[in-house]
Amino acid sequence: MTGVRELAFIRSGRLAWRDRVRPVLRDPGDAIVRPFIAARCDGDTLPLHRPVSRLMQAGIALRAIDPVVGCICGRVPFKGPFAIGHECVAQVVEVGSGVQHVRVGETVVVPWAVSCGTCEPCRRGLTSKCATTTGGTLAAYGFGPASGPWGGMVADAFRVPYADHMLVAVPAGVPPLRVASAGDNLADAWRSVVTPLRDRPGGSVLIIGGGAHSIGLYAAGLAVAHGAAAVDYVDDDPGRRGIAEALGAHTFPAQASASRRRTRTLRYDVVVEASSRAAGLRRAIRSLARGGVCTAVGYYLATGTRVPLMHMYATDATLRVGVSHARAVLPDLLAFVARSGYPAEQVTTLTAPWDDAPAVYAARTTKLVLQRDPV
Ligand SMILES: [Zn+2]
Ligand SMILES: [Zn+2]
Question: What is the pTM of this model?
C-alpha cells in the first residue's frame, strides 16, 4: 500500500514533505478526509520564525517559562521533525460503518483539537479539553507526538475520529477559501468578540494586534459585523492596519493609540489582547470599561506574568484566557458566514499552491493559505 505525503516541520525556517503510512479507518466512527485548503495558524509562526525549542526547554528547566507549558505542547516543545498544520477545509473520502451523518464527498471544516462530543467537558462546550481524547496534553493535529497520533493537516489524507461530531459541513454557497481558518483562528476570534458582545450589545471593542496576526484581524471584522459601536484596532504593521480598515475598523499604530488614549481616556466593553505580550495584556486590561471583558488569545509563557488585579477589581473586569474551543462555536460561526457573506478571506495575505508548502509555509506574511483542487 502506498503512503501519503505530509508537511513536516524540521526546524525553524525549514520544512519538508515526508511520507507516512496511508491512514485507514480504525473505529466505526472514523472518517478519512482529504484537505484541499489549509491555512497557517498564527501560533505556528512561533517555532517557524524563531528556534524556540531549545530556548523553551531551558526556560522550563530554569522556571523562567511556566512548566505548565509542557501540558500544552509536551515537555520538549516544538522539536522537529513533526507534522505541522491544524487549519483546513477537506473533502470526506471514506467513512466508517458507524458514521451516520457525514457523507463521502462532503466539504467539511475539521477543528484543530480532537474531541468526542459526548463527555462532560465536550457537553459544556470545552471541546479542546475533551476528557476522552486528551491525556496530559492537548489532543490535536499539527503539534507533534505529545498531542497524539493525529498528524498534521497539510497532508494528502488524515483520519478523523468521532466524525459525526468532529466534522462540520461547510454550508452551501460559502466559498471554502472564506472559511480556511474556521477550524482555529477564525473560531478563536469569534469567541473573543462575538460571545462577549452578546451580553454587551452595541458595545465598544478594542483589539491590540500584532502578535496573533490573523486572530486580531478576524476579530476586528467580526466585531464590526456584529454591530459594535466602535471598533479600534491597534497594530504597528501598516499592511494589517489596511486590512482592518477595509473590514470597517478604525486603526492606530501602537504609539499613536497610547497618546490618543491619554487625552480621551477611552474605555472599551470588549478588548482582545492579540499582541501576545505581557505589556499588551496589561494595557488591554487597563483599557476596559466597567464590567468589560478582555480575552487574551496570545501565549504568555513567562512564570508569574504580572496582571493589574486591583485595577480589575475596581472596574469589575473579566479576563478570559485559555485555548479556543473551535468545535463548539463552528455551527454558529459557519451559519453566520453563510448568512452575512462575512469576507474572512480578506485577511489572507498569501495564497499559494499546495505543492509549494515546504517553500512557503514559513513565509513572513500575516495569513498564509495553501490550495489545491478538490477531487
Ligand atoms: Zn492554532
Ligand atoms: Zn469529549
Answer: 0.95
3-state secondary structure 183-199: CCHHHHHHHHHHHHHHH
Ligand with smallest separation from the Cα of 39: 1
Q: What is the reported pLDDT for 256?
A: 67
pLDDT of 265 reads 54
Say which ligand is closest to the CA of 324: 1
Ligand nearest to the CA of 43: 1
Q: Greatest CA span in the chain, whole angstroms?
A: 68
Q: Report residue 98 CA to chain centroid gap.
A: 30
Neighbours of ion ligand 1 (CB under 5 A): 41, 43, 184
- Give the per-residue pLDDT at 257: 55
Rounded average pLDDT per 10-residue block, the chain, 375 residues:
90 95 97 98 92 85 84 80 97 98 98 97 96 89 92 98 98 98 98 97 96 97 97 96 98 74 71 96 96 95 92 96 96 98 98 98 97 95
pLDDT value at position 217? 98
> Separation of 212 CA from ligand 1 center, angstroms?
10
Neighbours of ion ligand 2 (CB under 5 A): 115-116, 119, 122, 130, 132
Q: Closest ligand to 297 CA?
A: 1
| pLDDT attached to residue 264 | 47
From ligand 2's centre to the CA of 244, what distance in Å?
35
Ligand nearest to the CA of 140: 1
Asked whether the beta carbons of 30 and 116 are under 8 A apart, the reply is: no
Q: How many angstroms is it from 42 CA to the middle of ligand 1?
A: 6
- Cβ atoms of 259 and 280 closer than 8 Å: no
Which numbered ligand comes closest to the C-alpha of 299? 1
Pick from 92, 189, 105, 111: which is nearest to 153 by CA?
111
Which ligand has its closest atom nearest to the C-alpha of 40?
Answer: 1
Find the 25 Cα to ligand 1 centroid distance in Å. Answer: 25
**Which ligand is in closest contact with the Cα of 147?**
1
DSSP labels for 228-296?
-SEEEEE-S-HHHHHHHHHTT-EEE-HHHHHHHHHHH---EEEEEE-S-SHHHHHHHHHTEEEEEEEEE
Nearest one of 53, 52, 43, 124 to 84, comparing CA atoms: 43
pLDDT recorded at residue 238: 97
